[in-house]
């Protein structure tokens, strides 16, 4: 299931990216992303009445110096995109609690004929290369500290900074914030407190890279928090009826997955009900963070499975290197060698393993959705050939076999 749902995730992202043009509102993009995930996941496993599926992280669209978690309500002031904006789109999907998250950064209006230069190009290139380095370092036997050190060096090469204290999490079924983490640009105290960990076979990680042209210090920008998740370790008897009604619906629909207040039919009651829940820590807020005005933040996130023969990235990258030209580059010899090395897994001849009909059916369902969605996204259609699409299904099906065998 895990290797199959990512095909839907990547192409939902491409749908939102393709729609993010000058004059489009951030609210409409968030609504578009969430609606697509809900609609398409509702079409599969209909006979599995108890199986939950849908949004694992609501669509967030954060622009320029807004770092993350911007997912406005209808009652909030909207943001209209314009040419030159640096846009970050972040979202996630799950089937039966198996999660895949992805995020992408791009500049509105940039073209191959007129590629971007300057600080925006620097920060996007830095973030992309940090993600590529992580893909090669997050593998069995390596330490999380190796990734942190590489990120600091790459960002410094582009005169940028990783956002201080941001975490990439291990993923487990129904758990979006697992025990093992990778920290960005930690303070001295965070270095002491953050637990060192070794990556192990069959673990899954959402690797989240956030790089700034500024000092990398993100703060609450004063915007309304709209994204929350249930803290399963907290218990409290809510006093207000509105709070109890809100909390009951939240648990029924989202369980421990992050959600947006926009998902509730009565937005006013949701805004009222969430107050008592958050006050008593039944819910964890995803605060809308900002860098200093005038700075720019780029984000790339991907989901990776740690297989015995190497890491398997299961969310496709939409990055187009020819769109961004920076005067800076990575000069550290070890990092240059790392980035030039192959990120592909070592192939191993294996005996054929039995795989369930449901897993194969799920793989090919999402492949079908992939082709249909990309055919509607003219800006990205030329990137994907039938050969590459076929290879994606082959890899997804093979991964499904390996996962079931491991289980």
List its salient traits:
407 residues; alpha+beta; Creatine Amidinohydrolase; Arc Repressor Mutant, subunit A; 6-stranded antiparallel β-sheet; 3-stranded antiparallel β-sheet
Number of strands: 15
Count of runs of 4 or more consecutive helical residues? 11
Shape: globular
In the CATH scheme, the class of the largest domain would be: Alpha Beta
Please give the CATH architecture of the largest domain.
Alpha-Beta Complex
Strand content: 15-25%
Name of the CATH homologous superfamily of the largest domain: Creatinase/methionine aminopeptidase superfamily
Uncertain spans:
359-407
As for the number of domains, it is 2
Which fold name is given in CATH as the topology of the largest domain?
Answer: Creatine Amidinohydrolase
Structural class: alpha+beta
Give the biggest beta sheet.
6 strands, antiparallel
Q: Rg to the nearest angstrom?
A: 21 Å
SSE topology string: HHEEEEHHEEEHEEEHEHEEEEHHHH
User: Mean of residue pLDDT?
Assistant: 86
C-alpha end-to-end distance: 12 Å
User: What portion of residues is helical?
Assistant: 25-40%
In short:
This protein has helices at 2-19, 26-41, 119-137, 144-157, 188-193, 241-254, 267-279, 333-340, 357-376, 378-381, 386-406, and strands at residues 53-63, 66-68, 86-95, 98-107, 161-162, 167-171, 181-183, 204-212, 219-220, 227-230, 259-260, 283-286, 289-290, 297-307, 310-313. The strands form four sheets. Strands 5, 6, 7, 8, 14 and 15 form a six-stranded antiparallel β-sheet that branches. Strands 1-3-4 form a three-stranded antiparallel β-sheet. A three-stranded antiparallel β-sheet has the order 2-13-9, with no helix packed on it.
């Amino acid at each position: 299931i895990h290797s199959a749902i990512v095909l839907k995730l990547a192409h939902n992202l491409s749908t939102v990216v393709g729609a993010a043009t000058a004059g489009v509102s951030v609210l409409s993009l968030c609504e578009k992303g969430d609606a697509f995930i809900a609609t398409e996941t509702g079409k599969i496993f209909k006979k599995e009445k108890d199986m939950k599926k849908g949004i694992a992280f609501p669509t967030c669209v954060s622009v320029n110096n807004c770092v993350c978690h911007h997912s406005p309500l209808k009652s909030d002031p909207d943001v209209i995109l314009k040419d030159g904006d640096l846009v970050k789109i972040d979202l996630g999907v799950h089937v039966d609690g198996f999660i895949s998250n992805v995020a992408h950064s791009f500049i509105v209006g940039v073209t191959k004929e007129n590629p971007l230069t300057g600080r925006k190009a620097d920060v996007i290139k830095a973030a992309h290369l940090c993600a590529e380095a992580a893909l090669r370092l997050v593998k069995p036997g390596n330490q999380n500290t190796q990734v942190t050190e590489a990120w600091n060096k790459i960002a410094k090469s582009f005169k940028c900074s990783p956002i201080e204290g941001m975490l990439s999490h291990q993923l487990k079924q129904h758990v979006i914030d697992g025990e093992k983490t990778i920290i960005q640009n930690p303070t001295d105290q965070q270095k002491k407190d953050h637990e060192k960990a070794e990556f192990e076979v069959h673990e899954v990680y959402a690797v989240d890279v956030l790089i700034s042209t500024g000092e990398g210090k993100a703060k609450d920008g004063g915007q309304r928090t709209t994204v929350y998740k249930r803290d399963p370790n907290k218990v409290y008897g809510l006093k207000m009826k509105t709070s109890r009604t809100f909390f009951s619906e939240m648990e029924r629909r989202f369980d421990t997955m992050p959600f947006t207040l926009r998902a509730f039919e009565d937005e006013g009651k949701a805004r009222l009900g969430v107050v008592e829940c958050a006050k008593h820590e039944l819910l964890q807020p995803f605060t809308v963070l900002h860098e200093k005005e005038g700075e720019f933040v780029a984000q790339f996130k991907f989901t990776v499975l740690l297989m015995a023969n190497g890491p398997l990235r299961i969310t496709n990258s939409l990055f187009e290197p020819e769109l961004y030209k920076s005067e800076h580059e990575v000069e550290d010899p070890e990092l240059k060698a790392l980035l030039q090395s192959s990120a592909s897994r070592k192939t191993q001849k294996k005996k054929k393993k039995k795989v369930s009909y449901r897993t194969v059916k799920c793989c090919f369902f999402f492949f079908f959705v992939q082709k249909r969605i990309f055919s509607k996204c003219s800006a990205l259609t030329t990137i994907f050939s039938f050969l590459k699409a076929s290879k994606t299904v082959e890899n997804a099906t093979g991964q499904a076999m390996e996962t079931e065998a491991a289980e």
